[in-house]
Amino acid sequence: MKSFAGKVAVVTGAGSGIGRELVFGLLKEGASVAASDIDEAGLKETVDKAGAGDRVRAYKLDVADRDAIYAHAEQVVADFGGVDVVFNNAGVAMKGSVREMSDEDLKWIMDIDFWGVVHGTRAFLPHLIARGGGHVVNTSSVFGFIGVPTQSAYNAAKFAVRGFTEAFRQEMVVERTGVEVTCVHPGGIKTNISKNGRVSNPADAKAFAKSIDQVAMTSPEKAAQVILSGVKKNKARVLVGPDAYLLDALPRLLGSLYQPLVLRGTKRTLTRGK
After folding, report:
1. Catalytic residue among 59, 70, 154, 245
2. Among this protein's residues, is 59 annotated catalytic?
């Protein structure tokens, strides 16, 4: 996909952050966009700011709801006549140790960050193939490369997205479907992800939000630009931000020895956040 002009794109998590900027970037490049989010107010703001008329449509969508995603795929195809590229971008954050977190919180983050990606991929795939090809873009994280204390649930989801997406890309080549696949690994991005996140211990909420803000090195606008450029180049993996390159390299160079370094860095970040 060398150009988005005239294409139909699907973007989940479009109510803010990277998702919102992906919508803006795609519209600027001539695409039509099906923008979705569970946050109706944020989604409306995205569409209003886009000012793109009927080239963008808003859909309230909870990506944790499998049936809703499949219904969404059918609705988008009915509204736009098909789909060419899918950005499974919606995601949430959570802080909690394995000992502290509840089963409910673990299920919540897995349903959104992992299963939302899986169902989004599978729901739209037949439509992409029917179109003669297309592109699926799944958002993992730099936490899909390394384990981080109090992030075991988030790590589990993002490692899973990475494995699922990398295997899926190879399958699409073997099966000659014409569908291209990219896995995105953002580093610290200046979004409101902590606002919609959860913490196992309410006393940690303020420190958690501050710690995320402190490591946010890249704007959502820049992140969207990097992602769209990577998709057009059919990159298997897109790293977003200088910290993403560092955290990708750590386990490659050090193996499991990266863990003491991450532990020390995490302790310093959490201390500054208090």
Report:
1. 154
2. no
